[in-house]
Write a structure and sequence with these properties.
With 278 residues, this protein is mainly α. It has nine helices and two strands, in the order E-E-H-H-H-H-H-H-H-H-H. It has one domain. The longest helix has 32 residues. Keywords: Cell membrane, Lipoprotein, Membrane, Transferase, Transmembrane, Transmembrane helix.
Length: 278
């Protein structure tokens, strides 16, 4: 893993920033393809991708700073936006990116749930590629495996600073791989009939389950909240419950709408002849 690809003078070109930028570009490209295939709103995908991508980076950073690392950043305010130090909470990125997408869709009179369904696979693909950036940067790492198996990070990384040369569980690698699985499952799901909003809520549910389980292996944030589970696990549980309720509701609403439309019988007016009075 290489944190620095090359230097332009004294300015380092970091693999983290390059791969993160590529993940956004490729996610937007896939989103454009899916929207064009669907036949709606492809002209808005690039603009929406730029706004949501930037909002996602900001949300991921601020979420990490205020929920996970405020004890440090409260005393180092000037380092809050030093994303290359590690510390990007993807759940915050999803939250602020989604809020930004909703605002954009409302402004341009786009069906929020429909566009969310279309773009859900592209969003999880961007997350999967983003985990490659975490691996190259040496953050989002796992706990020590206690065996000879695992990833050993270079001395310049945060993982080495925390655990030294111990082999660590490849938490970020496995999360990226699970994200690719979710990407495929969402494409498969969208090929079948489903209610408007169900693809997006399924995306939230699947990722929440994956993240909750992988948090047991994470070594960067291991302190439980209220003695129960980590902050990311609590967020995952809340997100899963809300998404599950939405998934059930959207499916019920779709069935109800279809049953009502099936019961409607078109009334054809009957022309009657007027009698002439003699």
């Amino acid at each position: 893993m290489h944190q620095y690809l090359f230097y332009i003078g004294d300015f380092p070109v970091r693999s983290y920033g390059l791969v993160l930028s590529l993940s956004i570009i490729l996610a937007v490209g896939v989103g454009y393809f899916l929207a064009k295939q669907d036949g709606r709103w492809q002209g808005h995908v690039v603009d929406m991708g730029i706004y949501c991508g930037l909002a996602g980076i900001l949300g991921a950073r601020l979420w990490d700073v205020f929920f996970f690392d405020w004890e440090y950043y409260g005393n180092h305010i000037t380092e809050i936006f030093n994303v290359w130090q590690g510390g990007m909470a993807i759940q915050g990125g999803i939250f602020l990116g989604t809020i930004t997408g909703i605002i954009y869709a409302k402004k341009h009179k786009i069906d929020v749930l429909a566009i969310a369904d279309i773009l859900a696979p592209a969003m999880i693909l961007g997350q999967a590629l983003g985990r490659c950036a975490n691996l190259l940067n040496g953050d989002a790492f796992g706990t020590p495996t206690g065996t000879g198996y695992g990833l050993v990070y270079p001395v310049t990384t945060l993982a080495h600073h925390v655990y030294g040369s111990q082999p660590l569980w490849p938490a970020e690698v496995w999360e990226g791989q699970l994200d690719f699985v979710i990407f495929a499952l969402l494409l498969i799901f969208r090929s079948f009939k489903h209610g408007r909003g169900q693809a997006f809520t399924l995306y939230i549910m699947l990722y929440s389950v994956a993240r909750f389980c992988l948090e047991f292996l994470r070594g960067d944030y291991s302190e439980p909240v209220f003695g129960l589970c980590t902050s990311a696990q609590m967020t995952s549980v809340i997100a899963f419950i809300l998404a599950f309720i939405g998934f059930i509701y959207f499916g019920w609403r779709d069935r109800k709408t279809n049953s009502n439309s099936d019961g409607i019988v078109e009334q054809i007016p009957i022309k009657t002849k007027k009698r002439r009075h003699k």
